[in-house]
C-alpha cells in the first residue's frame, strides 16, 4: 500500500484526496504517514501548483504569532511535556522533530495565544505529541494539532466531553452489562477513566503505534471523531474477558495504560457497533411514531 499512496502523493498536478482517504481508512504505512496526514488534515493543499506558496504562508503565519501565554501556564506546559517526552524515550521512540520538547511547548503556547477563550489542559500535550513524532517542521506540527482540535470542537458543536462520556457509560451498561456489573462490584471509578479516554482521544492510554493506526481512520472518514465512542466500546469489548478476571486496581491499570491491541479488529468492530446502535435508535423512533 505504501507504493500506492506514494504514487498519489507524488502526483504532478493534483493529489487525489478521495483516493487517499479510501486507502487511509484502512491504515497508512509508517513511511508515508506524515505526508499523508498533511493532506488529510489540510496542512498541504491538494493543488500542487499552490503547494510551495501555501507552505510558505503557513510557516510565515505560524512564526509571526508571538506567544502571550502566562508564565504560570508555560510552567505547567513544560512540566507535562517533560513527563510526556520521558515516557516516549523510555519506549525508545524517535521523534522527527530534533527538539520535541521545545516544539511541543511552542505549539501549545501558540495555540493558546490564537485561541484565547481556550484554557490549557494537560491532554493537549498528548494530542500534539503524535504530530511532533511524525513531522519535522514545527509549523506542520502546529497545523496538524490545530486541525485535530478543530475536528474535535466541530464534531458535535456544543456537546461537552462530559455529555459524550455520559452517553458512553449508558452504552456500556446497555451493550456490555456483565462488564458494567463487574466494574460496579469492584467499585471501579469507570467515569474517571472514560473522561481521560475522551478528553485525550486515547492518546494518553494507547501505545503510540496503536494510536497512529486509529487516527489514520479518524482523519480519513467524514466526521471521523464521531466514531470515537464506538471505538471505545469496541476496545472494552475486546478486553472484556481479561478485565472481568481483574480486581479494582488492576482494572484501573489496564484502562489507563492500554495494551498493544489489534487496532484493525477494534476499528472494524467499532463500525459494526455503530451500525447496530444507529439501527436500534431508528427502530425506536419508528416504534414511537
UniProtKB/TrEMBL annotation:
Pfam families for this protein: RabGAP-TBC
Molecular function terms, GO-annotated: GTPase activator activity
Domain Rab-GAP TBC: 27-222
This protein's name: RabGAP/TBC
Amino acid at each position: 500500500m505504501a507504493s500506492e499512496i506514494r504514487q498519489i502523493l507524488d502526483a504532478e498536478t493534483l493529489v487525489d484526496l478521495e483516493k487517499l482517504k479510501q486507502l487511509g481508512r484502512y491504515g497508512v504505512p509508517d513511511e508515508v504517514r506524515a505526508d499523508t496526514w498533511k493532506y488529510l488534515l489540510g496542512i498541504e493543499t491538494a493543488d500542487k501548483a499552490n503547494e510551495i506558496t501555501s507552505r510558505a504562508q503557513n510557516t510565515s503565519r505560524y512564526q509571526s504569532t508571538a506567544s502571550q501565554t502566562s508564565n504560570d501556564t508555560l510552567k505547567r506546559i513544560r512540566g507535562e511535556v517533560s513527563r510526556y517526552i520521558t515516557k516516549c524515550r523510555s519506549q525508545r521512540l524517535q521523534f522527527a522533530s530534533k527538539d520535541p520538547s521545545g516544539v511541543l511547548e511552542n505549539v501549545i503556547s501558540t495555540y493558546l495565544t490564537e485561541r484565547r477563550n481556550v484554557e490549557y489542559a494537560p491532554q493537549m500535550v498528548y494530542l500534539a505529541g503524535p504530530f511532533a513524532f511524525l513531522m519535522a517542521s514545527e509549523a506542520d506540527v502546529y497545523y496538524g494539532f490545530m486541525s485535530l482540535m478543530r475536528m474535535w470542537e466541530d464534531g458535535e458543536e456544543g456537546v461537552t466531553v462530559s455529555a459524550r462520556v455520559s452517553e458512553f457509560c449508558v452504552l456500556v451498561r446497555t451493550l456490555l452489562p456483565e462488564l458494567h456489573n463487574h466494574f460496579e462490584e469492584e467499585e471501579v471509578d469507570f467515569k474517571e477513566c472514560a473522561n481521560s479516554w475522551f478528553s485525550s482521544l486515547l492518546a494518553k492510554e494507547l501505545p503510540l503505534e496503536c494510536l497512529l493506526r486509529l487516527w489514520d481512520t479518524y482523519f480519513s472518514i467524514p466526521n471521523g471523531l464521531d466514531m470515537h465512542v464506538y471505538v471505545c466500546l469496541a476496545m472494552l469489548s475486546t478486553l472484556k474477558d481479561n478485565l472481568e478476571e481483574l480486581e479494582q486496581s488492576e482494572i484501573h491499570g489496564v484502562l489507563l495504560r492500554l495494551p498493544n491491541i489489534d487496532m484493525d479488529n477494534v476499528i472494524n468492530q467499532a463500525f459494526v457497533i455503530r451500525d447496530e446502535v444507529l439501527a436500534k435508535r431508528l427502530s425506536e423512533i419508528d416504534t414511537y411514531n
